[in-house]
Amino acid sequence: METIKYPSKASWDVLCRRALADKATEVEATVADIIADVETRGDKALMEYERRFTGAALSTLEVTAEELDCGEAAVSDELKDAINQAAGNIAEFHKAQMMTPVDVETAPGVRCVQRAVPIERVGLYIPGGNSPLFSTVLMLAIPARIAGCREIILCTPPGKDGSVHPAILYAARLAGVKRIFKTGGAQAVAAMAAGTESVPKVDKIFGPGNRFVMEAKQQVSRRNVAIDMPAGPSEVLVVADDSADAEFVAADFLSQAEHGPDSQSILLTDSPRLADTLPGVIDRLMSALPRQEMMSRSLTHSRVILLHDADEMMAFTNMYAPEHLIINHRQAETLAEKVVNAGSVFIGPWSPESAGDYASGTNHTLPTSGYARAYSGVNIDSFTKKITFQRLTPQGIASIGRAVEVMAENEDLMAHKLAMTLRLNAIKK
Predict the structure, then answer these.
(1) 8 burial type by CB count under 10 A (0-12 exposed, 13-18 middle, 19+ buried)
(2) Please, what's the b/e burial string for 259-297 (b: 16 or more CB within 10 A of its CB; e: otherwise)?
(3) What CA–CA distance (Å, rounded) separates 304 from 336?
(4) Exposed, middle or buried, 323 (CB in 10 Å: 0-12/13-18/19+)?
(5) What is the pLDDT of residues 170-217, one digit of tens each?
(6) Contacts of residue 107, Cβ cutoff 8 Å, sequence gap at least 6
(7) d(Cα 73, Cα 68) in Å, to the nearest integer?
(8) Quick check: 21 pLDDT over 60?
(9) Strands 264-269 and 303-306, sheet pairing
């Protein structure tokens, strides 16, 4: 892990760059072929891909009610209690985000209204494999249900035996998902985008995944379906001073590193002591954890950056635009007010990223790779459309009619002008 001391501001842009995935062109071509295959052969293609990638020999794709019952029975009471508590907090926070309709009379006789209308059909992608992300089921399905989406479907890869992880099934049922399909990877995204004999076509696709899943989401978004946001490897940036517990900071680094080998962790500090001691603390804590190889690979493109003061640290933070930002600093509340670009912010020493990943109530589906400069994390708005309505009376035509005529004429759109002129003439009769 690299330690960089007092870099010049001219070098910050380079330090904010994320690692680029190798063989991007190859991934793009592979994903394009998979999408075309699923569009052509439907369920048959999905089953063949599952046999190839997971070893599962499937005769049907949809999870049955019996499988849901068995999955629920297989989840321990302790895990059920944890999932239930997290679900309650997530629901509480997202219910509070529901939009109040806007209803304004902008001019006499001109009424303008904005309403949030739920997206009808949404598809959720949940990775399986080494980390079956049942927490992401809650983060996506609960706000979709609260928003009022009519149809919520979920795709997730099965194990070699053709089963779905029990905790994913339990979380899905708890969150209100009615239909679950055993398919993963780029092929699952293709199925939700185009529809197959079994998997319904959706209007918007949500969820994390590997680079093949992310590429598939990008490709289908240019064609016939929306996606939650562009995304890359997960990341955390920690702002800390000499008051920070080095073990807390090291644990935050490692919790990010175990997401995957491409994940990145950054420490910004004005404490030479913390900058010098952190690598050793990380090594000590990591020695007692699983997934050491994965974490070690992640740490090779993670950094400790020593800066002069809090102002520099916050300026760098806003340039980096982290997915997760932890402010472990004696002036954490004050520094949090200076955040302009971040996916989710964790304030103070007692606010680890893992709280937001699971149970605080905020959403953990967040923009990465600097997209926090322009994108929000998933929230209630992600599952709705804002539709505007307007109703004009004859008084409204009289209020704004001449302005419309003049503007239309000066844009050389004479039919626009005519539509207003005819009404103006009608109310003068």
Answers:
(1) exposed
(2) bbbbbbbbbbbbbeebbeebbebbeebbeeeebeebbee
(3) 20
(4) buried
(5) 999 999 999 999 999 999 999 999 999 999 999 999 999 888 999 999
(6) 396, 399, 400
(7) 9
(8) no
(9) parallel
Q: What are the C-alpha distances in Å from 50 to residues 29, 58, 199, 267, 352?
A: 19, 8, 15, 40, 36
How far is the C-alpha of 58 from the C-alpha of 183, rounded, in Å?
A: 10
Structural tokens at position 283: 């090594």
Find, among 127, 134, 234, the residue nearest to 189 by Cα: 127
pLDDT digits (tens, 9 = 90+) for 65-93: 999 999 999 999 999 999 999 999 999 99
Question: Cα separations (Å) of 189 from 59, 205, 222, 379?
Answer: 20, 8, 13, 21
Q: In what order do the strands lie in the sheet with 384-392?
A: 102-107, 110-118, 384-392
**Other CB atoms within 10 Å distance of the CB of residue 237:** 26
Annotated catalytic residues are: 323-324
Cβ-proximal residues to 419 (8 Å cutoff; 6+ apart), any chain: none
Give the count of beta carbons closer than 10 Å to the beta carbon of residue 319.
16
The pair of three-digit structure tokens given for residue 161, joined into one six-digit string? 């035996």
DSSP 126-190: ---TTS--HHHHHHHHHHHHHHT-SEEEEEE---TTSPPPHHHHHHHHHHT--EEEE--HHHHHH
Largest CA distance in the chain: 87
Q: In this structure, how many other beta carbons lie within 10 angstroms of the beta carbon of residue 104?
A: 9
pLDDT-based confidence at residue 224 (cuts at 50, 70, 90): confident
Collect all residues with Cβ–Cβ distance below 8 Å to 284 and sequence separation of at least 6.
250
DSSP sequence for 184-212: -HHHHHHHHHH--SSSPP-SEEE----HH
Residue with tokens 């919520």: 152
Q: Is 225 left (phi over 0), alpha (psi -120 to 50) or beta?
A: beta
What order of strands is seen across the sheet that includes strand 151-156? Answer: 179-182, 151-156, 121-125, 204-206, 226-227
Q: How confident is the model at residue 22 (pLDDT cuts 50, 70, 90)?
A: low
Tokens 């009289």, located at residue: 398
Q: Which two tokens stand for residue 124?
A: 């959720």
Strands 110-118 and 102-107: antiparallel
Give 324-353 as a DSSP string: EEEEESTTHHHHHTT--S-SEEEESTT--H
Q: Which amino acid is at 156?
A: T
